[in-house]
C-alpha cells in the first residue's frame, strides 16, 4: 500500500475540516469521530484530522496511479473549500511531515 501525507496550517482549519467531511459524505462513505474522519474513494482512502490550526491528510492506495488520483481529489477539494491554492499543497511520503503555509 502506498501512502502520502499533507499538513496545512490555517486559522479556519476546523471549518475547512467540517466542510470537507460534509461534502465528501454526499458523494462517498465517510466515517467521522470528532476531529478525525476516514473517506473511502474507489481508488483509495484518506484519513483526515484537525488539531487546533493544523489540518492533516494521509492518503492510501494500492498503486501509484490511484495514489495520484486520491491526492488530486483531496487537493482540488481543499482548494475549493478553503483559502489555500495549489502552491500550498506539498504532499510528501507518509513517513515524513511537511507543514504548508498558513492561509
From TrEMBL:
<dbReference type="InterPro" id="IPR014543">
    <property type="entry name" value="UCP028291"/>
</dbReference>
<protein>
    <recommendedName>
        <fullName>DUF2218 domain-containing protein</fullName>
    </recommendedName>
</protein>
<dbReference type="Pfam" id="PF09981">
    <property type="entry name" value="DUF2218"/>
</dbReference>
Amino acid at each position: 500500500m502506498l501512502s502520502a501525507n499533507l499538513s496545512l496550517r490555517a486559522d479556519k482549519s476546523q471549518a475547512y475540516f467540517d466542510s470537507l467531511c460534509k461534502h465528501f459524505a454526499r458523494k462517498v462513505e465517510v466515517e467521522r469521530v470528532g476531529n478525525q474522519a476516514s473517506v473511502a474513494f474507489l481508488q483509495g482512502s484518506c484519513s483526515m484530522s484537525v488539531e487546533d490550526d493544523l489540518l492533516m491528510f494521509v492518503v492510501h492506495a494500492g498503486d501509484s496511479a490511484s495514489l495520484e488520483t486520491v491526492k488530486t481529489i483531496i487537493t482540488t477539494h481543499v482548494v475549493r473549500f478553503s483559502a489555500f491554492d495549489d502552491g500550498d499543497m506539498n504532499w510528501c511520503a507518509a513517513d515524513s511531515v511537511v507543514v504548508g503555509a498558513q492561509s
